[in-house]
Amino acid sequence: MSLEIAIGGRAIGRGQPPFLIAEMSGNHNQSLERALAIVDAAAQAGAHALKIQTYTADTMTLDLDEGEFHVEHPLWGGQSLHALYRQAYTPWEWHQPIFERARQRGMLAFSTPFDETAVDFLEQLNVPAYKIASFENTDLPLIRKVAATGKPMIISTGMATVAELDESVRAARAAGCRDLVLLKCTSTYPATPENTNLLTIPHLRDLFACAAGNIEVGLSDHTMGLGVAVASVALGATVIEKHFTLRRDDGGVDSTFSLEPEEFAQLRVESERAWRALGQVSYGPSEAEKNSLVFRRSLYIVADVRAGDVLSAANLRAIRPGYGLAPGLYDTLIGKRVGRDVRRGTPMSWDLLA
């Protein structure tokens, strides 16, 4: 099995720095000019990919504002689901200019389809990958439709049980998906660190490692700030998705838990630092540490002694630097006699003994 997967020719895996996805979502605020500015800012901040969402209000829900179709939520409450999706959706005629701008800026660009018509549309635009949102990770017909394209798939795992994920992964594999990324996700907006449960990331990798095809794991992060995302790298996350906006103060359906450009740039720096720090299981001095060995403590003669004198606490101590015998030999040496005159400041060695 390959140790990496590839999206649009870009390798993703533990041998590579984390793959960072900037999620625009509805932060364009229904302005194509702003959407293109978000693309430019994401590229400048170091995102490897730009992701949008492909749906219409009518493909998401019914145009009703009553009962369960009325939203009660701290960020989005006071309106119908249909109205919320009308506000948040990305017009389909914007997709091509957004994708083209992203490619011009050196980023991959793809989308989250929410129904089969969106997949057919995105196939016409030749997207390099597909994302399945947490709320759709049990929609097996949609998963099969996406998997049948043969493109790499990214599935957010928010709310899904192990049994549901197993069913989704099996459906994807059976329908033709070879390259799969599972993202640990907490489907609250914003999410809290306490509800993030990053220890699930290595468990996800182990749980589905035997499934046919290549698999990677990562994090779709709705928490505020960078700490959770950076910590995920230490647990094996190779993909990190964060919502992205120009300025949170500009508003927008997801602006509250989105990163600003300067913050995303810092995520790029810190996530790569975390990845570089992983290294391998290592004990003993590294090559970089070998020059520091001399600053360890070691045993030194700390008072002038004459031939025949007995080593004692008065003339033998563990001090820096590290040119003498190891401090662990102190009890062995105490009471032994020196064989010649020794000046204060001489590193203790076996040839000093009588």
Give descriptors for this structure.
31% helix; alpha/beta; 3-stranded antiparallel β-sheet; 8-stranded parallel β-sheet; 11 helices; Type Iii Antifreeze Protein Isoform Hplc 12; TIM Barrel; 354 residues
The number of helical elements comes to 11
Secondary structural class? alpha/beta
CATH superfamily of the largest domain: Aldolase class I
Q: How is the largest sheet built, in terms of strand order?
A: 7-4-3-12-11-10-9-8
Short summary:
This protein has about 350 residues and is α/β, with parallel strands linked by helices.
Structure, explained:
This protein is of the alpha/beta class and 354 residues long. It folds into two domains: 10-278, Alpha-Beta Barrel (TIM Barrel), CATH 3.20.20; 287-352, Antifreeze-like/N-acetylneuraminic acid synthase C-terminal domain (Type Iii Antifreeze Protein Isoform Hplc 12, Alpha-Beta Complex), CATH 3.90.1210.10. The chain is 31% helix and 19% strand. The strands form four sheets. Strands 7-4-3-12-11-10-9-8 form an eight-stranded parallel β-sheet. A three-stranded antiparallel β-sheet has the order 14-13-15, with no helix packed on it. A two-stranded antiparallel ribbon has the order 1-2. α1 (32-45) packs parallel to α4, α1 (32-45) packs parallel to α10 and α9 packs parallel to α10. The relative contact order is 0.12.
